[in-house]
Amino acid sequence: MRLPHWPHRRIDPAAAAVAVLALALRVPLLVAALPGVGNSDEPLNVAVGMRMASAGTLDPHSYRYPGLVYEVVAGVASAFRAVGVHVSAHGAMRIENLGIAHTDSRLLMVAIRLVGAAASVATCLLVWAAVRETLKRVGVPESWGRGAAALAAATVAVSPLATANSAYATPDVYAGFAVALTLYGTTRVLGEARYGTLLCGLGVGLALGAKYLAVAALPVVVAYAMSPGRRKDLLKVAGLAAVVFLATTPAILVHPGAVLAGMEAEAIHYETGHVGAEGGAPLYYLNALFRDQPLLVDATGVAVVAVFRTRGLIRRTLIAGLAYAIPQFLLLAVMAVRFDRNLVPLTPALAILAGIAVPTMIPHRHRRAAIAITVAVALFPAVAAARLYPRLDEHARVQAAAWVSRHIPADQPVAVESYGPWLDPARFRLVPLTFAADRPTVEARALILTEHAAGRFLAAPADHPRQTAAYRELLTRYRLAARFTAGSWIEVYVPR
């Protein structure tokens, strides 16, 4: 296999502008909320990776996710120690409850998050490259092709969902990068570039290693099926993908039963439900996509139409992209559990479809007006992305913790729901509650309810009558003492 011959040796100003835009939106979020860590997944992921670094092993002994995100954390921690920076395995992540954690090493957390931010920016550039190379190969004018590629990449750069998730040590951002790499590889396969095989193998292997995302292999199979002379290379892709997956999740060789059990447990979780985040998945995901980046929802419909109205490379590329986007969305839609972060690996695929289909389908006589509208719709989410910091910083948690410290005597019981403030466990007798409705008889000097816990039930009482009734019963014994809204709301109650 020949090494890749990169078609652009100079940095394209349009691509550089997209990268700068993406970085400008993501870099401030690297320090959001620190030293508090409020994401539900990030604390456990960091704790597992730190345990790997301390033990000097590649086995995380946790298989809810494959190993890529854990290896990133372990790699950053090992690099810190290699240059003499002390990193405490215990202090790096102190977990109090779901969505409540604290770090004693802000620099370590920033470095770990920086890797995810870099992967997110690289995702934007891969979208740009996939669209740019495809349109160039079919003879689209230079300025038109570069503009379409830059706009497609910008939809991911300004996506609030992609931006927010780039700031967490979670697998979604790496899965998005893997999908973008895979789809760029399929465009190279369809464009008859020999290094397409290498890119596809790396992409599929990373998709498996990031989030068991086997559906990422479908566009590769479809691309090779439409390239009769290269079908034998599909075996090379499979072999390379297997090697990459084994490198990220070596436990599949030594503890296959445990890895499969972890995969099964996560599948059961998504099939059986998650309190407050279940039901109506198809409409939920469509609404989430439309709120995040409305252009991509509309452009996907344009791409479906374009499959029947175009031919040649454009048509084959759209078919390959849809071979991932449609099954991935359907897979999410049939699950009982729904989280908007699951759309992060879907967004780059929709952006590539949009960048290729929209220029093809815009009539020449309406081109200027269509371009103006498209640019406006594509960049409008940048406003929401630029306002992410206050929401992710969750200053309400700091305010609530300060209020409790001022008004509640030491050594008193304080009941704290998930996603609440971090309180000093040496000062208070903490009573951690996933949801206060699960323990309506709890006795405490202060009770802290949160939007991400109690709020999910109280905002939809008809959907959660049992939990709503439990909260109402609980609040007959407590009165509201303070409320904080800098971020998600947090309420502090004291006994009546």
Automatic annotation (TrEMBL):
<feature type="transmembrane region" description="Helical">
    <location>
        <begin position="173"/>
        <end position="190"/>
    </location>
</feature>
<feature type="transmembrane region" description="Helical">
    <location>
        <begin position="196"/>
        <end position="222"/>
    </location>
</feature>
<feature type="transmembrane region" description="Helical">
    <location>
        <begin position="317"/>
        <end position="337"/>
    </location>
</feature>
<keyword id="KW-0812">Transmembrane</keyword>
<keyword id="KW-0472">Membrane</keyword>
<feature type="transmembrane region" description="Helical">
    <location>
        <begin position="234"/>
        <end position="253"/>
    </location>
</feature>
<keyword id="KW-0808">Transferase</keyword>
<protein>
    <recommendedName>
        <fullName>Glycosyltransferase RgtA/B/C/D-like domain-containing protein</fullName>
    </recommendedName>
</protein>
<feature type="transmembrane region" description="Helical">
    <location>
        <begin position="143"/>
        <end position="161"/>
    </location>
</feature>
<feature type="transmembrane region" description="Helical">
    <location>
        <begin position="110"/>
        <end position="131"/>
    </location>
</feature>
<keyword id="KW-0328">Glycosyltransferase</keyword>
<keyword id="KW-1133">Transmembrane helix</keyword>
<dbReference type="InterPro" id="IPR050297">
    <property type="entry name" value="LipidA_mod_glycosyltrf_83"/>
</dbReference>
<feature type="transmembrane region" description="Helical">
    <location>
        <begin position="369"/>
        <end position="389"/>
    </location>
</feature>
<keyword id="KW-1003">Cell membrane</keyword>
<feature type="transmembrane region" description="Helical">
    <location>
        <begin position="343"/>
        <end position="362"/>
    </location>
</feature>
<dbReference type="Pfam" id="PF13231">
    <property type="entry name" value="PMT_2"/>
</dbReference>
<dbReference type="InterPro" id="IPR038731">
    <property type="entry name" value="RgtA/B/C-like"/>
</dbReference>
<feature type="domain" description="Glycosyltransferase RgtA/B/C/D-like">
    <location>
        <begin position="109"/>
        <end position="248"/>
    </location>
</feature>
